[in-house]
Specification:
Elements: H1 3-6, H2 46-49, H3 55-65, E1 75-79, E2 87-93, E3 99-107, H4 108-111, H5 116-134, H6 146-159, H7 170-175, E4 179-183, E5 190-193, H8 204-212, E6 217-221
Parallel strand pairs: 1-3
Antiparallel strand pairs: 2-3, 4-5, 4-6
Helix pairs in contact: 3-5, 5-6
Length: 249
Amino acid sequence: MSQERNQTSNTNYQSSKSHHENQRASSPTPTDQPPKSHPSIVDPIWEIIDPKPNLQDLFDEFRETIFLGILPELKVKWSRKMTRSSGQCVHSMNENGDCKGCVIELSQPILELRPRRDTVESLLHEMIHAFLCARNQRDPDDPHGENFLKIMEVINRKVGTNITIEHSFDEEVEALKKHWWTCDGPCQKVVKRTRNMVPSSKERWFREHEQTCGGNFIKTSEPEVPARKKRHFKKTPESEGPAGKKRKT
């Protein structure tokens, strides 16, 4: 990988009284930040102004204001099935290992339990991954390697975010595990899951459990199912037609 490809540089502007002096400007990167004209993107006021932002709108805004339009347009969406992490960037690669495109997914079950700021920082985390993929600057041995950390630290410093290399929320992840099974054998093991999947021999640990304990897993807890609202229909006398006239029998 060439030095030019890995280098991240700011766009610097030189001003002078003379109109004949040349300006120096390097190619823009996410390290540049335009002057602030509105509250910080993690200001608590956004919890009131826009508590549940549109993900695609957020992406488009950050793409222009933080990544300066360098990051290609891509799809950003919520995932209801993602319950172990707050987000992921799915890369599509060609035969040469170059990035063809990315899709960013954020966990709706986790982030709807968290402040708006966590949605912003999780999105920016995944946008860094997408940016590095688009420029073929991903660290092959570590997805959060030197190139990732460099951009992450600059964005945090410039806009006041607290993007980290991990964004798992343990309390929220545990809170989503509402399907519980308890072993009726000596071990009394409790298995908690987000999905209604009974422990079975398809899992690696299950065989050892059969040999050392031999108990059966009994469902002991599950999420409450909201009661369905009864639909009320306007009763029409069977002996009357549409206009109130009695039907002939």
